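Thread amino acids onto this structure.
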């Protein structure tokens, strides 16, 4: 079975960071963990200490570890559930999030 990491960078809507973090940590991670193949989910905030200048486009990062023989099935499930009761999206999530799937080699 192939292994993947789904990397999502995002930001909250200005002035709604607490609401965003509550939704992301207490609802969204669990909703993603319910998707077939998702075996773990973790969140990170950009650290203050860095080696050099880092463009601070995103303040938050989420990593989802996925094990599947069909990555397109993961995306089909994600898309079909997004915006439903199974995977609601908070209005505290700012537009412009970036999501990238990486395959382990």
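Threaded sequence (105 positions):
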């Amino acid at each position: 079975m192939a292994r993947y990491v789904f990397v999502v960078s995002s930001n909250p809507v200005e002035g709604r960071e607490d609401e965003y973090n509550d939704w992301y940590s207490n609802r969204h991670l669990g909703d993603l963990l319910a998707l077939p193949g998702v075996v773990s989910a973790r969140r990170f905030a950009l650290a203050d200490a860095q080696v050099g200048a880092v463009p601070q486009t995103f303040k938050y990062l989420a990593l989802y570890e996925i094990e599947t023989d069909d990555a397109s099935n993961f995306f089909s499930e994600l898309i079909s559930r997004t915006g439903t009761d199974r995977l609601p999206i908070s209005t505290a999530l700012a537009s412009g999030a970036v999501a990238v799937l990486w395959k382990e080699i």
